[in-house]
């Protein structure tokens, strides 16, 4: 039985132990409170009730975790690739076994709807399986013969790395960053978002129980400006894989400068979905709705700007408004719910402030725009039409169920509007004109583009953004390039002519 009541009963069972012991850090294989003994509360966005106390890690805890990761590194880097593969598959198996627990906890901690989090938990397992299978070949290189040398490249894990994750789909995103680091042979210190610590703790426990050696994966909870900052500044941490806001990425780059930190950034987006009048409008409508209102719109790849051709705009908007009115906003643990509450009050205030901004700038509020109820951070799915590219609602990442629609006349204008933002993460294109799809996708400034499709991930493809949306790509070898050092060794194949000085 998977109705709201049964999920609520299961939630109580899953939370009981966290309520008793709090959410501890995991350092060197040991569950420990923060060195300072301090804790903070994680609170559910559904009803603002406290969930559990969380270890308030700081510099000392990061230092202990970085030391544990450094000590564990040589053995983990040297372990047989096949053994590493087996452990990562064991982690994936355990994720599948505990997928329901993970999804229920994630919904309660973040407000994301169960229908999406149940899939996200299983995606976490797939991420581990994908990188598990690549582990044995992670060190492979190339043979590059030149006239007098045989050049041979190989890869070696960079060392201990810091992984810093946000609160939107935190479980899945953590697996997406940590699995390749482990497959490459790196050891990890993970600092999850302070708003969503539950599933990061479950994930670290799963890895520990699956036989990952102590110190290979360390978890330190805490605030970004203290624990997160200390991680980015630590000299034993060789690289930072970060997912979060563009502004935070820029801070991390500065913080990591003294220790010459290698950085990998997956940042914000203001992604366009461009609908031409020759498109399959029924499917385009489904995709437009899915890509902004799923995951509460708290999704880096959401298509938050609808660019719709003038000739079809009126009809498309009318159908959009009708469908928005039928979206089910409700308790995230109700399997029927499509949109849950936003993560917290600050974010809720930010999202609603964009309703004021849209009105002030002269756009038309065509749907939503208000709070639902007076408990929890529920907002109506919102649509602004009649916007233009200069407006704040067309330029800034709102990160909620909030769509801004702009009309365009022709392809040239559509492209100019699409590229007229600081971000460049994803783009979605709806048209049946083949040559236009080729031209447009080539000129569109985005790291990932889907043509006549919503966002469907294929793990071997490169994931990441351009402009203010990120630095670096993830997926297969792209991940290994970040977590590993490339080494070239040139062997002379004979007695080639050498320049002799002072001879
Ligand atoms: P955020 O930048 O506020 O926080 C992300 C993480 O960084 C948290 O763990 C936080 O504690 C930590 N942090 C904050 N300040 C820090 C500092 N000075 N030093 C080190 N760490 C620090 O982001 P958020 O609000 O949690 O997440 C939402 C953002 O993430 C959105 O902008 C979204 O687009 C982006 N995001 C991007 C992708 C992508 O793949 N491009 C995926 C998911 C989310």
From TrEMBL:
By sequence similarity, the record places it as follows: Belongs to the aldehyde dehydrogenase family.
Please state every residue range assigned to the domain named Aldehyde dehydrogenase. 35-489
Q: Which residues form the active site?
A: 266
Q: Which UniProt keywords apply?
A: NAD, Oxidoreductase
Q: What is this protein called?
A: 5-carboxymethyl-2-hydroxymuconate semialdehyde dehydrogenase
SUPFAM superfamilies assigned: ALDH-like (SSF53720)
List, alphabetically, the Pfam families matched: Aldedh
The record's listing under PANTHER family reads: 2-AMINOMUCONIC SEMIALDEHYDE DEHYDROGENASE
């Amino acid at each position: 039985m998977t109705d709201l009541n049964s999920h609520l009963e299961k939630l109580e069972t899953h939370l009981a132990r966290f309520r008793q012991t709090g959410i501890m850090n995991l350092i060197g294989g040991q569950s420990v409170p923060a060195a300072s003994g301090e804790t903070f509360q994680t609170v559910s966005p559904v009803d603002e009730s406290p969930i559990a106390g969380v270890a308030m890690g700081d510099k000392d805890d990061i230092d202990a975790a970085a030391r544990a990761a450094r000590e564990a590194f040589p053995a983990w880097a040297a372990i047989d690739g096949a053994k590493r593969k087996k452990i990562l598959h064991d982690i994936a198996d355990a994720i599948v076994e505990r997928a329901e627990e993970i999804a229920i906890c994630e919904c309660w901690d973040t407000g994301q709807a169960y229908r999406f989090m149940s899939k996200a938990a299983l995606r976490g397992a797939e991420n581990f399986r994908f990188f598990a299978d690549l582990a044995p070949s992670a060190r492979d290189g190339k043979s590059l013969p030149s006239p007098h040398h045989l050049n041979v490249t190989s890869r070696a894990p960079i060392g201990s790395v810091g992984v810093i994750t946000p609160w939107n789909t935190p479980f899945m995103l953590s697996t997406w960053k940590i699995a390749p680091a482990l497959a490459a042979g790196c050891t990890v210190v993970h600092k999850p978002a302070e708003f969503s610590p539950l599933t990061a703790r479950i994930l670290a426990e799963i890895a520990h129980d699956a036989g990952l050696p102590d110190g290979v994966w360390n978890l330190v909870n805490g605030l970004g400006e203290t624990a997160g900052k200390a991680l980015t500044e630590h000299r034993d941490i060789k690289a930072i894989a970060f997912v979060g806001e563009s502004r935070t990425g820029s801070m991390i780059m500065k913080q990591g400068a003294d220790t010459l930190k290698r950085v990998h950034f997956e940042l914000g987006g203001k992604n366009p979905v461009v609908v031409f009048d020759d498109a399959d409008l029924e499917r385009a409508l489904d995709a437009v709705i899915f890509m902004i209102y799923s995951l509460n719109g708290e999704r880096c790849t959401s298509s938050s700007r609808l660019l719709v051709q003038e000739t079809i705009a009126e009809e498309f908007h009318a159908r959009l408004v009708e469908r928005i009115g039928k979206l089910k906003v409700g308790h995230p643990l109700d399997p029927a719910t499509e949109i849950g509450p936003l993560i917290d009050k600050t974010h809720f205030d930010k999202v609603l402030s964009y309703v004021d901004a849209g009105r002030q700038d002269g756009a038309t509020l065509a749907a939503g725009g208000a709070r639902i109820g007076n408990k929890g951070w529920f907002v109506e799915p919102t649509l602004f039409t009649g916007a233009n590219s200069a407006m704040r609602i067309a330029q800034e990442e709102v990160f909620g169920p909030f769509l801004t629609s702009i009309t365009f006349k022709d392809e040239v204008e559509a492209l100019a509007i699409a590229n007229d933002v600081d971000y460049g993460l994803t783009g979605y294109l709806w048209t049946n004109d083949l040559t236009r799809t080729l031209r447009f996708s080539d000129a569109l400034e985005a790291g990932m583009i889907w043509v006549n499709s919503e966002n469907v991930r294929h793990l071997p493809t490169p994931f990441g953004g351009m402009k203010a949306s990120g630095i670096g790509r993830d997926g297969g070898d792209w991940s290994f390039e970040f977590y590993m050092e490339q080494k070239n060794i040139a062997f002379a194949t004979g007695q080639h002519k050498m320049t002799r000085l002072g001879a």
